[in-house]
Amino acid sequence: MAESTFFRSEEMSLIQLYIPAEVAQPTVAELGELGLVQFRDLNPDVNAFQRAFVGEIRRFDEMERQLRFFTSQIEKAEIRIHSSHTPAYPSRARSRQELDDLEERLSEHETRLLQMNNSHETMQRRYLELTELKHVLRETADFFQEAASHQEDIRHSFDEPTAPLLDDLETGPSQESQGAGLQLGNVTGVIPRSKMQTFERILWRSLRGNLYMNTAEIEELVIDPSTDVVVEKNVFIIFAHGREILNKIRKIAESLGATLYPIDSSMDRRREALMDTMRHIEEFNSVLINTTQTRRQELMRISENLAAWMTIVRKEKATYHTMNLFNYDINRKCLIAEGWCPTNEINNIQIALRAVTDRSGSMVPSILNELRTHKEPPTFHKTNKFTSGFQAIVDAYGMARYREVNPGLFTIISFPFLFAVMFGDVGHGLLVLIAAAWLVMNERKLARVDGEMFQMVFGGRYILLLMGAFSIFTGLMYNDIFSKALPLFQTGWHFNVPEGYDGKTILVAEPTGHTYLFGIDYTWHGTENYLLFTNSYKMKMSVILGVVHMSFGLCMLYYNAKFFRKPIDIYGGFIPQILFMECLFGYLTLMILYKWSVNWFETDAAGHAIRNSPPSLLNTMIYMFLSPGTINEGDRLYAGQGFIQGVLVLIALICIPWMLFLKPYYLKWEHNQARSMGYHQPSENHVRISTDSNHSEEAGGAVVAEDVEHEEEFDFGEEMIHQVIHTIDFSLSCISNTASYLRLWALSLAHAQLSEVLWSMTLGMAWSFTGTFGAIMTVIMFAGWFSLTVGILIGMEGLSAFLHALRLHWVEFNNKFYQATGYPFEPFSFSAILAATDSV
């Protein structure tokens, strides 16, 4: 049994379970609570609707629908749903009787709630009608009086399509209308205010103005009982003559959603109707209050257990979904399951199986068999709250192949460090560290905060913590705190400033013989050649970090080949690749370190230079290939440089055909050897089968993995093409990937310069003023400086550095050894199922 480490994924075992039918449900539920088994589908050809437990799943679907209905009603009533984490609902499988009782209880609650909803909606609708009628009766009293005073002004229909809705009252009524003695009818009702303009326009066009209309707004809020939405409405009354015209008006009003109320023309009857309506409103109001209180009490009783019921139903539904993956042995009356689990957890699974058998009182225990198989298991990295964020970065690139080296272990250090190289500033790093520390210290409380963006940041709180800490370290190395120097130790340079210095003449610092203890000497800040110095320093540092990072990745290729017992990957892959890398770029790194360690301006006793001027390493690398073995005296770095460089170029050139031909021809030789011994494939690529040979198909025993992995026949031409592509890709990527690490230099330079510009344009400008105005400007500029620092230098620049560090890990580091061809371990786990359901 392998020890559990983060260096490789957990060792997995394929297990077979024989579960007696009478304890199948509690056994699977117990495994769901444990969350350690990823079950395989043993019925891949069976339709989902033809599986054994479809009826149970439909039953729980119906119960889940009822619970969703309760949830919507409770949320609409603004009632708090109680948490399910109470002692009354422990984590255990429910018996059939308990599930039957729960189903009956949910049905009773649904029936009562539907009846109350229907009754409540009916009464609300009737209450709405009475309220609208009250406003109609009140407003139409004025309408009738106005209509009576202007009855002679209501005009007949005209043939002209452009006739106005009403005659101009100042022109006086027509002769026809004066002699007609019209008997007017009316249409009264309520219509949504949003449709009022459309209503008037349609009436004018269809009736050609043969009507008299008046409207009034209802100030009281009107709630639609079917949608619970507040609707603004208007009361209207339309006077016209003729039965056909009145019917036409009614149809138009009803088509636009108006509610019509017949109003008597008698004032006394209208007064009586208003009094009756007010009395009915008071009666309905009291009944509505009682009904609402009863319904709310019912919802509160449901809310006390709703979360627990939802958890029970989801667990049971997931249990039966999982049981549909099993096979049923008719003769043994048991379910046969197969799945993957961590080898270290087999004992815990057996303990759980025995516990279920003891609780249920069953005489037949569940049986667990560990199967021997060559099928590729899923990949499972055991993580905690600290390592999960770093592992997520790796998994986003691709899931590791089973048991290959896990880059997540190294990412814990390398990712925040490379980020900090680009983000290095003591002040900015301190702000990030404080924010991350706050997230870590309040993680229990903040874990319940909703919001996708916040949860993304919260999940990476430990990444932020290390990013802030490493940024402080690199800021100390750069001697930068908000773009200013940090004089921590004694400087190694001294400026001799003459008396009466005007500040325009360039001064040259003289060494004091003292070496600054840590990082860059603070005296460099503000000097004319500071940018030139830091550019050279950070560029060479980026190359060194890149070569070390990639070389470390190549070393992981050796550990993978050794673990999987593939010596050809060592002799035909790792050795030529590491030689090619180190002969070129490892040599460049050594030249950089050597150049840093030599005092090129050292003189002898006579004051003459001992060495030539420091050579350009870029030219050295170019002429190393153009003229190997030849070095100009002015470009000489050390004695014997020409010979060493010639040998290194020769080794690098030899490595290319070494990578290109050795592995394909070795695989061809291995394939021929296997064929000569009677095998169709080499022994390490044999067919992978796991089966139960003790039982016949009639007994239902042949249920373990019989999936034969058909591997392709060895094709030397295809293997050769693959190796050519790999060799070209590696050779070119060594150059491009090394150059890619120069982004460390570029972003570090950009971050430092942007920080300096921001300081000089805000606080630097404010401190140029004095007195009260200077104090006011300091306060204003400090607020602007801090806001821009957090928003731009930490927010945007931090995100940019994060993405570039991500790219360096995914492309430059991982492609040296990380295959990422595996598939994740997704066990049957109630906690994962409930978490995924809650996040939807």
UniProtKB/TrEMBL annotation:
Coiled coil: none annotated. Its main location: membrane. It is found in: Membrane. Keywords: Hydrogen ion transport, Ion transport, Membrane, Transmembrane, Transmembrane helix, Transport. The chain crosses the membrane at residues 417-441, 462-479, 541-559, 571-594, 643-662, 757-776, 782-806. GO terms for molecular function: ATPase binding; proton-transporting ATPase activity, rotational mechanism. The keyword Transmembrane applies. InterPro entries: V-ATPase_116kDa_su (IPR002490), V-type_ATPase_116kDa_su_euka (IPR026028). The keyword Transmembrane applies. This is V-type proton ATPase subunit a. One of its GO terms (biological process) is vacuolar acidification. Residues 83-102 are annotated as: Disordered. GO terms for cellular component: fungal-type vacuole membrane; vacuolar proton-transporting V-type ATPase, V0 domain. Essential component of the vacuolar proton pump (V-ATPase), a multimeric enzyme that catalyzes the translocation of protons across the membranes. Required for assembly and activity of the V-ATPase. The gene is VPH1. Belongs to the V-ATPase 116 kDa subunit family. It comes from Dissophora globulifera. It holds the Pfam family V_ATPase_I. It is a multi-pass membrane protein.
